[in-house]
Amino acid sequence: MNSDQPLLVATGVRKVYRTGSVAVVALDDLNLAVRHGELVGVMGPSGSGKTTLLNCLSGLDGIDGGRVEVDGHDLFAMSDAARTEHRARTMGFVFQAFNLIPVFSAVENVELPLLLVGTRPREARRRALDMLDRVGLGHRVEHRPSEMSGGEQQRVTIARALAGRPAVVWADEPTGNLDSAMADQVMDLLCELNQDEGQTIVLVTHDSAIGARVPRLIRMRDGRLVEDVHQAVTTPVAIRDLPLG
Ligand SMILES: Nc1ncnc2c1ncn2[C@@H]1O[C@H](COP(=O)(O)OP(=O)(O)OP(=O)(O)O)[C@@H](O)[C@H]1O
Ligand SMILES: [Mg+2]
Fold first, then answer.
1. CATH no. of 36-59+79-241
2. Exposure of 104 by Cβ count < 10 A (0-12 exposed, 13-18 middle, 19+ buried)?
3. What pLDDT, in 10s, does the model give residues 34-82?
4. Separation of 57 CA from ligand 2 center, angstroms?
5. Are 161 and 93 in contact (CB under 8 A)?
6. What average pLDDT does the structure give for the chain?
7. What one-character-per-residue DSSP string does the chain give?
8. How many Cα neighbours within 13 Å face the side chain of 203?
9. How far is the CA of 26 from the centre of ligand 1 (A)?
10. Where are the domains of the chain?
11. Residues contacting ligand 1 via CB (< 6 Å)
């Protein structure tokens, strides 16, 4: 991985959905570069193309024009199988719906993607337990999703997204199903992973309080990127860091 190069480069990306005789241009000449270690928020009205951006730039969905490079590889120049493999190796996902497997415990949910890419069971279990600990769920590893709060379930999905040490985590409205206290906890965790570990994260949100917490905020309208700002974010200062006297 060459960290001088942007991790992700999207150039002139176009996406058109055709439903019967209606064509919707969901992404229109979209250009975006994301560097290693960035936390990028994506905002914009409903229907402006935020989810489409995430799906197309991660290669979950195809594109109708342009080019997307992730970690030096042209996503749409590779075969479907190679793209799936590349995605499993370099990307983690967190969605609004937690998408956890109900009959699996927290640790089984987190280790599953590792097992699918061939990680040895013992190593997968160790990493899953580490990640659950990292997201503050060391005491819930045997719980099933129905036995956890919404915020805890979303932290399991974050542990799952991170377990394979992805280059980039894509999150689409990760706090959309949570009350504001839980949403704050999940946002704190994502900010911390970005600040402390340099995890690259692209985060779709419609919540302007969340938008205010990210160092870089892009805005979309009608499938186009209409604003791209770097902003000062206030990091909560721990009491011990305050100067005394
Ligand atoms: N599978 C699909 N088939 C046809 N049209 C689609 C499909 N998915 C999205 N669209 C259309 O593409 C446009 C962009 O949709 P998208 O889901 O990316 O918006 P969004 O910004 O994520 O909105 P929201 O904030 O409501 O989640 C919309 O006009 C939508 O109706
Ligand atoms: Mg959406």
1. 3.40.50.300
2. middle
3. 999 999 999 999 999 999 999 999 999 999 999 999 999 999 999 999 9
4. 14
5. yes
6. 92
7. --TTS-SEEEEEEEEEEEETTEEEEEEEEEEEEE-TT-EEEEE--TTSSHHHHHHHHTTSS--SEEEEEETTEEGGGS-HHHHHHHHHHHEEEEESS----TTS-HHHHHHHHHHHTT--HHHHHHHHHHHHHHTT-TT-TT--GGGS-HHHHHHHHHHHHHHT--SEEEEESTTTTS-HHHHHHHHHHHHHHHHHH--EEEEE-S-HHHHTTSSEEEEEETTEEEEEEE---PPPPPGGGSPP-
8. 29
9. 7
10. 36-59+79-241
11. 17, 19, 24, 26, 44, 46-52, 206
**Which are the contacts of 81, defined by CB distance < 8 A and separation ≥ 6?**
none
List phi, psi (to 5°) of 201: -140, 135
Determine the distance from the C-alpha atom of residue 137 to the mean position of all C-alpha atoms in its chain, rounded to a whole number: 19
Confidence of residue 84 (pLDDT cuts 50, 70, 90): very high
Mutate which of 30, 48, 177 for ligand 1 pocket (most atoms within 8 A of beta carbon): 48
Q: Supply the Cα-derived Rg of the chain in whole angstroms.
A: 18
The pLDDT value given to residue 182: 87
Q: How many whole angstroms from 86 Cα to the centroid of ligand 1?
A: 25
Is 0.90 surpassed by the pTM of this model? yes
If one residue of 52, 58, 177 were mutated to test the ligand 1 pocket, choosing by the most ligand atoms within 8 A of its CB, it would be 52
Residue nearest to atom 30 of ligand 1 (CA): 47
Query: Which amino acid would we find at residue 159?
Result: A
CA 51 to ligand 2 center in whole angstroms: 4
Give the residue from 137, 170, 130 showing the smallest Cα distance to 152. 137
